[in-house]
Amino acid sequence: MATVQNNPLKGWQVDRAAIRTLGRDLQRPECILCEPDGSVWTADARGVMKIAADGTQTLIRQSGIEGDRALDAQSLVMGGSLPNGIAFNRDGDLVIANFGTDAIELMTRDGRSRTLYREVDGRPLGKTNFVLTDSKGRTWFTVTTREVPWTRSINARTADGYVGLIDERGIRIVAEGFVGTNELRLDAREEWLYVAETNARRISRLRVRPDGSLHGRETYGPADLGGFPDGFAIDAAGNLWITLVLTERLVALTPEGELLTLLDDGNPAALAVYEQHYQAGTTTPELMASCKGTLAPMMASIAFGGPDLRTVYLGSLAGDTLPWFRSPVAGLPLAHWRVPATAR
């Protein structure tokens, strides 16, 4: 791992008194995308919510996709459409990993939608979780598990999650054997792909070949993060900012492998009970719900935005707004950040 001199996160933590919120009446704002013009987009149980720079909200429902259904109180068991991971492609349209329909979908900014893929290698995709586009116009995606129901994989820690790639050749699996595959990110040079394995409580990374094939898989940082990594983002100094869902903690993994706690909103008593059940393989949605915090309940994702990429937004599974605060270091711009506005 590279060494960063004068890492701006050393000795820094989020000031809870300085946290503000964006948006209102959101439903399961799990994944967040930011644009240079100040717009913030978030997945929503009803579709995708756009929040303009002036705070105006527009809910964009998917037309042509099976209608949404209500979530249970724990936001874990659902049916029908449930946009989870979202990413902008080169045309400015939204690629969606739909956790409810088990598909990869495409939605224009006015809601016109179509299914891109439901299968790979002749088999159903499974629980599609997250999507990420790169500078070459390719789409990377994760599937958490193929277990039915998918919640069985949490206690069984089933290693059937995988990473897929969509490019000019179509769709294919490029790495498999992950335990609860969740979000993924590319480094600044797109030479390393980082993968959150939620149920194994670790981050893995793999080297990326020019053709999109992956090799040299390794655990990045601690073998056990002490919590369940869900979403993460990379900053300009190479730190991984990671949300630990249920643990309700925001941590940073430095290039040297040091784990820093930036924000802790956890419930120690509930976590202690949950940890016992996690080790025994007897967790339940009710136990998960008892762990949720107060800032971003069931803290699930993180995104850098603002014109200087120093505004940090937190997504969640049980929240109705987006908490945000300022960072001492800018985030790494995603591929769509570099796309000229005229192309969108």
Topology diagram in text:
Blueprint: E1 20-22, E2 32-34, E3 40-44, E4 47-51, E5 57-60, E6 83-88, E7 94-98, E8 103-107, E9 113-117, E10 119-120, E11 123-124, E12 128-133, E13 139-143, H1 152-156, E14 161-167, E15 170-178, E16 181-186, E17 192-197, E18 202-208, E19 214-220, E20 228-234, E21 240-245, E22 249-253, E23 259-264, H2 268-280, H3 285-290, E24 299-305, E25 311-316, E26 322-326
Antiparallel strand pairs: 1-26, 2-3, 3-4, 4-5, 6-7, 7-8, 8-9, 10-11, 12-13, 13-14, 14-15, 16-17, 17-18, 18-19, 20-21, 21-22, 22-23, 24-25, 25-26
Descriptive tags:
single chain, about 350 residues, mainly beta, Neuraminidase, four-stranded antiparallel β-sheet, 3 helices, about 40% strand, disordered C terminus
Please explain how this structure is put together:
A hairpin with a 2-residue loop joins strand 3 and strand 4 (47-51). This protein has one domain (19-327): 6 Propeller (Neuraminidase). The N and C termini lie far apart (37 Å). Helix content is 7%, strand content 41%. Strands 1-26-25-24 form a four-stranded antiparallel sheet, with no helix packed on it. A four-stranded antiparallel sheet has the order 2-3-4-5, with no helix packed on it. With 344 residues, it is mostly beta strands. It is globular and about 45 Å long.
Task: Count up the helices.
Answer: 3
The CATH topology, please? Neuraminidase
Number of strands: 26
Spell the H/E element sequence: EEEEEEEEEEEEEHEEEEEEEEEEHHEEE
Ends apart, CA distance between termini: 37 Å
In order across it, which strands form the biggest sheet? 1-26-25-24
Rounded average pLDDT: 93
Class of secondary structure makeup:
mainly beta
Report the portion of residues in β strands.
35-45%
| Cα radius of gyration in angstroms | 18 Å
What would you call the shape?
globular
CATH superfamily: TolB, C-terminal domain
CATH architecture: 6 Propeller
Give the CATH class: Mainly Beta
Q: How many individual domains? A: 1
For the biggest sheet, the summary is: 4 strands, antiparallel
Low-confidence stretches: 67-78, 340-344
Measured as a percent range, the helix fraction is under 10%
